[in-house]
């Protein structure tokens, strides 16, 4: 683990009138996920994210899906962002930046990330369909925005083209995993944090 010897992992519990979530996230993992939520499509996307980022992720979530999936998806995004921020610690030695393209058949997604301590989110995606099964595609934006906000990262997500909404979203989550893996990786050439400010 280079000059960052602590275990880069964190856990969070979040219980509201709408959701009950327990989430553990490990940066330096092996791509193992244990995900149980009431939103099957999100389970699938988080599994892809974990596998392609080589993280470890455990999510146990129950929410008010009789209303809709919104609160569950949003709150998991919040919890994932919080655990990433905590797991990163002082951020010493990290690469900080990453830009990753991932194709999924006819779709091409790009995720660009800066672990900046400045939360910002740009989203350039137009899906052909408003739903994938019972899952509302607008919740992808909600999840990613809350993740970026709580993780305090700058996150740009662009789907350059695609025809199948499932493929487009899948490419986004795979690219997010791979970009985050690269940006959080330790670069032995980096002394301290990769910023002229001396702090991130």
TrEMBL record:
UniProt xrefs under NCBIfam families: PRK00951.2-1, PRK00951.2-4, PRK00951.2-5, PRK00951.2-6
Domain of life: Bacteria
Coiled-coil ranges per UniProt: none
Identification of the protein by name: Imidazoleglycerol-phosphate dehydratase
Catalytic activity: D-erythro-1-(imidazol-4-yl)glycerol 3-phosphate = 3-(imidazol-4-yl)-2-oxopropyl phosphate + H2O
UniProt GO molecular function: imidazoleglycerol-phosphate dehydratase activity
Subcellular location: Cytoplasm
UniProt EC number: 4.2.1.19
């Amino acid at each position: 683990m280079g000059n960052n010897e602590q275990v880069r992992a964190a856990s969070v519990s979040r219980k509201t009138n709408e959701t009950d979530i327990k989430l553990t996230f490990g940066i330096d993992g092996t791509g193992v996920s244990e995900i149980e939520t009431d939103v099957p499509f999100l389970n699938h996307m988080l599994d892809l994210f974990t596998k392609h980022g080589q993280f470890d992720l455990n999510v146990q979530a129950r929410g008010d899906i009789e209303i809709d999936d919104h609160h569950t998806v949003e709150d998991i995004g919040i919890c994932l962002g919080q655990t990433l921020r905590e797991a990163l610690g002082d951020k010493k030695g990290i690469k900080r930046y990453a830009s990753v393209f991932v194709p999924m058949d006819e779709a091409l997604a790009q995720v660009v990330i800066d672990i900046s301590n400045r939360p910002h989110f740009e989203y350039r995606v137009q899906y052909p369909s408003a739903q994938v099964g019972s899952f509302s595609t607008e919740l992808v934006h909600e999840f990613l925005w809350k993740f970026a906000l709580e993780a305090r990262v700058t996150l740009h997500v662009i789907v350059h083209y695609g025809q199948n909404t499932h493929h487009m979203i899948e490419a986004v989550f795979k690219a997010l995993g791979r970009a985050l893996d690269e940006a959080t990786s330790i670069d032995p050439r980096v002394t301290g944090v990769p910023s002229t400010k001396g702090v991130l």
